[in-house]
Design the sequence.
């Protein structure tokens, strides 16, 4: 009997034959590489570089499939991007699944396929994993944790850390904001909006490397939960400088803008999963924008604002009519389970 | 308002101020170290050794607190042990929490404290983390993923891998079997057994190092889900040799034995969380046992069986009366959510 068809049963998490078959048939095949195939408790990696970047992220997004991606693809992009914005070259991923009893194996396979495809695209290997099954009703379909290891050359260790940020520096983003959050919300709720919005979910490591190979990026961060507002507020607090953003420089898709207006959201607070904020000196702005715009993941890149000496520790948005307002970090959640 | 008292709210997973406060007050304080305090997306680690071991494990145990430990302590022990049985010196952990809305912050703090205390005991640093909150009813209280990095010196790379296992080698375990599984089951169900059973949940890296510093351990594995039976069957399949276990050499606590008999479980299939199975040549058995027995985590160590040329690929249990039976791996689960 092939026990990896149909729906997930509690026995698939047992450490017994059913779990073995599930791992063999659904996971190992898709993440195929020599390190994983060993199936020991730890993956053994080789390193001849100096510093290791290590990150972790659990994904609990609802729904698990959304326009532009699914939880598997997202779990790779999220962790790869966390490594890349730290100046690291992402190399290895662990993948741990918590699966609700009754989840269709076919759907799990599709998600594992997306995960494997995105890992290949990003150039990272899934080298170790874990699978737990919980009784029906004890988790919501599927949660995935990906932890990641990347390597940082000694000379790149300060990339993106923010310590060199100075007034006059520019803030760049590689495209439209709010796409991921609105796509997921639109898929989750039954708004009957005719607008089609796709998540921007993408691995940015190759794009980021193109920039950092040629330019010193003083600060780099992916604006996920909490959106652009959270990242900029963190930067303002960290540096003690002020930040000014130009409203008409913010790239926003029409559909996202319309949906935000209807629902009363500020796109600056909405999660992105394929965006990076970079702070670069004024002298580098045009060249960085050129590199970004020549990549499919950066075609709508824009310099959205700059570091200033005024209103220290605060982020201020200037609008087209000359008015301005403070952009704060939200206290709680606008949108739960968006990643 | 201090938003990190009382119960977990969805806003604690938002990327906003509430999440920031939760992380600061509940987690960072407890896992305090310079790498974590940076709070960037990836922890940056230094390595001057040759090989990196990398492992991941999600913990979904029910109940989250049990005699002998809780999910926080377990999450450290499980990942530390996976690294240690791979011949690695565990060094760094990531910790990712998935928390159900409404979970008491006080309980979360206690669990985080246990986690921090066990990490300190094991000599590992929690260097990166993540927190997700899901709506009430969408997960069962609290799940924790820990991923771990350890370092393996080049000369130790074959430790515990099994490639040198040969007939005549002995199989050693560092104490009683089945304690964890029965302790958790006893805490979960309302059997009204008067027996007190404690989980064996412990980090074994220091104990293992004492042995591997002096002896070549040919195969090493922690018998968690699937129990001793799963590990030995894996070894038999991997090497192609047979394995013989002596029933009267198996250390089992009276209470565990009684509970297993009452419920119809075989203790060989029950999960342990503080046990390691080692395969060593006959010449090393006494010395290895002496090292183990001199440690509080190995006082009841025993040589439970040996590698044989007969019944290839199978594990056979010999009982006191001279009879024998095959010990197979179970197909599904005896006990779900035991780790």
Sequence:
């Amino acid at each position: 009997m092939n026990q990896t068809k149909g729906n997930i049963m509690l026995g698939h998490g047992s450490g017994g034959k059913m779990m073995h078959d599930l791992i063999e048939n659904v996971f190992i095949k898709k993440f195929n590489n020599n390190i994983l195939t060993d199936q020991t408790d730890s993956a053994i990696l080789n390193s001849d570089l100096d510093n290791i970047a290590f990150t972790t992220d659990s994904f609990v997004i609802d729904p698990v499939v959304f326009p532009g991606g699914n939880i598997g693809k997202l779990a790779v992009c999220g962790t790869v991007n966390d490594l890349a914005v730290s100046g690291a070259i992402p190399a290895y991923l662990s993948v741990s699944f918590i699966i609700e009893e009754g989840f269709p194996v076919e759907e799990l396979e599709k998600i594992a396929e997306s995960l494997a495809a995105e890992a290949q695209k990003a150039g990272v290997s899934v080298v170790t994993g874990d699978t737990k099954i919980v009784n029906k009703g004890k988790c919501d379909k599927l949660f995935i944790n990906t932890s990641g290891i990347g390597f940082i050359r000694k000379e790149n260790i300060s990339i993106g850390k923010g310590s060199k940020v100075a007034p006059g520096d520019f803030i760049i983003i590689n495209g439209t904001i709010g796409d991921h959050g609105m796509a997921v919300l639109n898929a989750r709720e039954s708004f009957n909006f005719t607008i089609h919005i796709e998540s921007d979910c993408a691995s940015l490591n190759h794009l980021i490397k193109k920039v950092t190979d040629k330019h010193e990026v003083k600060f780099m961060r992916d604006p996920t939960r909490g959106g652009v507002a959270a990242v900029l507020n963190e930067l303002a607090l960290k540096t003690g400088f002020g930040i000014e953003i130009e409203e008409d420089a913010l790239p926003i898709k029409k559909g996202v803008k319309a949906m935000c207006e209807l629902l009363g959201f500020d796109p600056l607070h909405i999660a992105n999963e394929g965006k990076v904020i970079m702070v670069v000196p004024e002298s580098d702005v045009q060249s960085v924008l050129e590199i970004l715009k020549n990549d499919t993941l950066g075609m709508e890149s824009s310099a959205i604002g700059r570091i200033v000496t005024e209103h220290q520790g605060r982020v201020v948005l200037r609008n087209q009519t000359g008015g301005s307002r403070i952009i704060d970090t939200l206290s709680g959640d606008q949108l739960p389970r968006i990643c």
Q: What stands out?
A: The longest strand of chain B covers residues 89-100. Chain B touches chain A through 83 residues (CB under 8 Å). Chain B has a mean pLDDT of 89.
